[in-house]
Write a structure and sequence with these properties.
An 8-stranded mixed β-sheet has the order 1-2-3-4-5-6-8-7, with helices on both faces. α1 packs across α3. It has a single domain, classed as 3-Layer(aba) Sandwich (Aminopeptidase), CATH 3.40.630. It has 6 helices and 8 strands; from the N terminus they run ββαααβββαβαββα. β5, α4 and β6 form a beta-alpha-beta unit. It is α+β, with helices and mostly antiparallel strands and 202 residues long. The longest helix has 15 residues. Pfam families: Acetyltransf_3.
Length: 202
């Protein structure tokens, strides 16, 4: 499945295509010297080399629907976005995750990619999406809120590659709620069951 849409700030058309092993080299080009960005990702190895990137693509990437984010005009690889089923939740609930290489920040690519992948989620019949972000990642928080994700709270998340427990913010989006009603609509029962216990949520 290939999906296309525009990035509002740059005016460029972007394309989502399924991730492939060959993307490992592109990932290293964008992230191999960017420790700060990699450390924001729970499951991306650091230091990142092509073997590590291929392992991520074949494990984490292959566990869901994962796309390369391309600038359509020249097929430049700008990042990655995906939807991954949440095993502990009922069917129809998935995790949204994405990253854009620092070279391509502030050009609207992340926002455009999230918009496109929401259409993929609708086509897949997903009921609810969840995303976790580090508290200091203001840009990602803004993008999620722009597309009607609601801040559900804060929790400790087990991240073995990051040294253990890490504090993350949990955002949720009900795919069946109209935008105008989202703020006052209750979360679906599936997401309520997925939420951390009260002692983990702050």
């Amino acid at each position: 499945m290939t999906v296309e849409g525009s990035a509002s700030r740059s005016g460029s058309l972007i394309r989502l295509r399924p991730s492939a092993d060959g993307d490992a080299a592109f990932m290293v080009d964008l992230l191999g010297e960017d420790r700060e960005s990699v450390m924001r990702m729970a499951r991306m190895p650091w230091p990142l080399n092509e073997d590590g990137a291929r392992h991520w693509l074949r494990t984490v990437g292959a566990s869901g629907t994962t796309f390369a984010v391309l600038r359509a005009e020249d097929r430049a690889y700008v990042g990655c976005i995906g939807l991954w089923p949440i095993a502990e939740a009922d069917g129809g609930v998935a995790e949204l995750g994405y990253w854009i290489g620092r070279t391509y920040w502030n050009q609207g690519y992340a926002s455009a990619a999230v918009k496109l992948v929401l259409e993929v989620a609708r086509r897949q019949g997903l009921d609810c999406l969840q995303a976790t972000v580090k508290p200091d990642n203001a840009v990602s928080r803004h993008i999620l809120e722009k597309y009607d994700f609601v801040l559900a709270g804060e929790r400790l998340q087990h991240q073995p590659l990051r040294g253990g427990e890490q504090t993350v913010l949990v955002y949720e989006r009900d795919m069946e709620v109209r935008q105008a009603d989202h703020d006052r609509a209750p979360m679906r029962e599936a997401l309520r069951r997925r939420r951390p216990r009260d002692r983990e949520m702050r």
